[in-house]
Design brief:
Layout (H helix, E strand, L loop, with lengths): L6 E3 L2 E3 L16 H4 L25 E6 L10 E6 L3 H5 L10 E7 L5 E4 L16 E9 L5 E11 L4 H7 L5 E3 L11 E2 L2 E2 L1 E2 L23 E20 L6 E6 L4 E9 L8 E9 L4 E6 L3 E18 L5 E19 L10 E4 L4 E4 L5 E7 L2 H4 L3 E5 L6 E5 L4 E5 L11 E5 L3
Parallel strand pairs: 3-10, 3-11, 13-26
Antiparallel strand pairs: 1-2, 3-6, 4-5, 4-7, 7-8, 8-9, 8-12, 13-18, 14-17, 14-24, 15-16, 15-19, 15-23, 18-19, 20-25, 21-24, 22-23, 25-26
Length: 422
């Protein structure tokens, strides 16, 4: 993929990024950047202060590697914020996407990097109601086609929430962790570059060219809606011998982690997962009560959109990506095969007891986002239980409750109610 210079449009930046996008600079080839003789902000994204010049805790850390697995010494690394999902959902087809670079740095001689944000960072229009900020991380060593990218959601800390909501806020960011207040610690994101063959729209064109694929002249553009997509948000199992019943509710403020799809050509069947973004519900959905002899996967719907990034140097090079925008609602449940549960992960329950799971690490659901009919692949979803989103088991007779990954009371993975003699 080609690198290019971010351009300033009024007070907003149009910067190439996302699942596979690169936004660097036309000055990439200048000697000052090549030997990194200075840490000055000039030349490369001059609007952003280099993280090596900012004191305080790192926001994102990691190691950058080349396609062959070797560390990428002195790689260029930067983070770009996107508008929140609700704002993305309001864009009309063909609208530009107002993105914003929030941090930049150079990796050291071992490929290690640390990204920090300035305390004057403004996040107005970038922060969701739940306090999340969608961020893409991009790394390149300056070669034309080697690039690493990742997508994630960060959270504005509760300490700055009031200021953030009223004035755009001083940024104090950390990894989003569901309902609980986040712990301010670096988010680790190791990045491995991939080698992409440049995808151009016919012959390389001048800056004023229009592209048949709908991509912008430069920057990001919203191409079209991918509609409402079913997303897996919960699973539970009750065997016949257990006699157990289970009730699941997916409630307001519950969060799902939804994968982002990326493609260099935008062609059906060429998309793959690349990072994930947090999205919150805006309603409470009850999935009813299921009795014994039941394995269930619950779904609700989120809206997805298709976007394109065009970078130039000389370009044009295109990156297409499918991103979740906002919660849509709806509910359906489908049968699911019982997973294996080691006996060491089981605990006994007496007759008349119950168990409520309302706090756990997120569980991952393969093929949890149903996009196969529009981009050719289903992506992964994750969901956890919070104080407002819970799973309740009731035991009318003695039984066992088992986890696929651990004990029910401590990050169990999926829960399975089994007979007392299991």
């Amino acid at each position: 993929m080609r690198t290019h210079a971010p351009t300033r449009l009024g007070r907003r930046f149009k910067v190439s990024l996302a699942l596979g996008s690169a936004a660097l600079m036309t000055a990439m080839s200048t000697p000052a950047l090549a030997d990194d003789t200075t840490r000055s902000s000039g030349g490369w994204l001059p609007e952003i202060k280099d993280s090596r010049e900012i004191t305080g805790s790192a926001l994102i850390t990691g190691t950058v590697r080349k396609p062959d697995g070797k560390t990428a010494a002195n790689a260029y690394v930067y983070a770009t914020a996107w508008p929140d999902g609700e704002a993305l959902g309001q864009l009309e087809e063909g609208d530009d996407v107002p993105t914003r670079v929030i941090a930049k740095t150079r990796a050291d001689s071992n490929g290690n990097y640390q990204l920090r944000v300035a305390n004057t960072l403004q996040l107005a229009g970038m922060t969701s109601a739940a306090g999340n900020v969608d961020v893409d991380i991009t790394a390149t060593d300056g070669s034309p086609d080697d690039i690493a990218t990742d997508s994630l959601s960060l959270r504005v800390s509760s300490a700055s929430a009031d200021m953030k909501r009223t004035a755009g806020g001083v940024a104090n960011l950390s990894l989003a962790q569901g309902e609980e207040d986040p712990v301010i610690k670096p988010v680790n994101r190791d990045l491995r570059m991939e080698r992409y063959e440049s995808e151009s729209d016919g012959k390389r064109a001048g800056v004023g060219a229009k592209f048949a694929n709908g991509c912008p002249v430069t920057g990001e553009k919203y191409l079209r809606s991918l509609g409402k997509r079913w997303v897996s948000v919960g699973m539970h199992y009750q065997t016949g011998p257990s006699g157990a019943k289970a009730t699941y509710r997916y409630s307001t403020s519950a969060e799902a982690s939804l994968a982002v799809g990326m493609s260099k050509s935008g062609k059906f069947g060429t998309f793959s997962g690349n990072g994930s973004l947090k999205r919150s519900t805006s309603a409470s959905i009850g999935f009813g009560t299921q009795g014994p002899k039941t394995g269930i996967r619950h779904y609700t719907m989120y809206k997805y959109g298709l976007y394109c990034n065009t970078s130039r140097s000389p370009g044009p090079d295109f990156t297409f990506y499918a991103k979740p925008t906002s919660f849509a609602g709806g509910a359906k449940s489908v049968k699911s095969a019982y997973p294996k549960t080691p006996k060491r992960n089981c605990v006994p329950h007496k007759k008349g007891s119950d168990f409520v799971q309302d706090k756990s690490k997120m569980s991952s659901y393969s093929k949890g986002v149903k996009l196969d009919d529009v981009i050719g692949v289903d992506l992964t979803s994750q969901s956890g239980y919070t104080r407002s989103s819970s799973l309740k088991f009731e035991f009318p007779k003695a039984a066992q409750l088992c986890g696929t990954k651990g004990l029910p009371g401590n990050s169990p993975g999926l829960l399975v109610a089994r007979g007392a003699g299991f």
